[in-house]
């Protein structure tokens, strides 16, 4: 009987207990003033990861979602959860959708991208053409990670992440800094 690799989703405030022979991807990027792109990313990961997966390990998708507390929308527990789960990830996928043109910046995701790019950890990056800060992301990545492909669509970004995860074997993809 052929075994297929499992894909599980861990959302905000759920703890990820790492499993042996499992790869972990953190879904970083737009959360406010943009569409719920994570749903589409999770579907694409499920489909791509299961293709020819008899010999593949399982996959955990660490998927933050907006958890509001207080009138400002700030939630320290959420920030702590994200920080802890970013550290658990073998690869961080960044997606910057065009979203609301009036408020598209996604400052926390931009900060996380800068931190990840500077440390040399495994990342896959996509920036939708309509995202107002696209030129900034491209310029910064040319400096920090010359040659890193930056995709314009979510499916290509997910595909790059899947290929990177499949190309690398244990230990995790993170490189020493």
List how many beta strands DSSP finds.
6
Order of helices and strands: EEHEHEHEHEH
> Which runs of at least 5 residues are low in confidence (pLDDT < 50)?
170-177
Structural class computed from helices and strand pairing: alpha/beta
* Widest β-sheet, arrangement of strands: 1-3-2-4-5-6
Give the helix proportion (percent range). Answer: 25-40%
Radius of gyration: 16 Å
Shape: globular
Topology at a glance:
Blueprint: E1 7-11, E2 22-29, H1 37-50, E3 58-63, H2 76-88, E4 91-96, H3 107-119, E5 123-127, H4 134-144, E6 150-151, H5 154-167
Parallel strand pairs: 1-3, 2-3, 2-4, 4-5, 5-6
Helix pairs in contact: 1-5, 3-4
What can you see in these coordinates?
- With 177 residues, the protein is of the alpha/beta class.
- 37% of the residues lie in helices and 18% in strands.
- It has helices at residues 37-50, 76-88, 107-119, 134-144, 154-167, and strands at 7-11, 22-29, 58-63, 91-96, 123-127, 150-151.
- A 6-stranded parallel beta sheet has the order 1-3-2-4-5-6, with helices on both faces.
- The chain is globular and about 40 Å long.
């Amino acid at each position: 009987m052929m075994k297929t690799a499992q894909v599980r989703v861990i959302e905000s405030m759920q703890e990820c207990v790492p499993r042996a022979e499992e790869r972990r991807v953190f879904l970083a990027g737009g959360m406010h003033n943009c569409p719920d792109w994570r749903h589409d990313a999770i579907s694409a990961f499920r489909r791509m990861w299961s293709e020819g997966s008899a010999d593949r390990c399982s996959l955990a998708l660490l998927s933050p979602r907006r958890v509001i507390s207080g009138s400002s929308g700030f939630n320290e527990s959420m920030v702590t959860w994200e920080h802890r789960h970013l550290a658990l990830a073998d690869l961080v996928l960044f997606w910057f959708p065009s979203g609301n043109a009036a408020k598209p910046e996604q400052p926390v995701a931009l900060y996380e991208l800068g931190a990840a790019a500077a440390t040399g950890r495994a990342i896959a990056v996509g920036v939708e053409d309509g995202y107002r800060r696209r030129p900034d992301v491209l310029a910064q990545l040319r400096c920090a990670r010359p040659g890193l492909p930056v995709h314009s669509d979510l499916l290509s970004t997910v595909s790059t992440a899947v290929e990177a995860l499949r190309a690398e074997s244990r230990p995790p993809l993170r490189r020493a800094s």
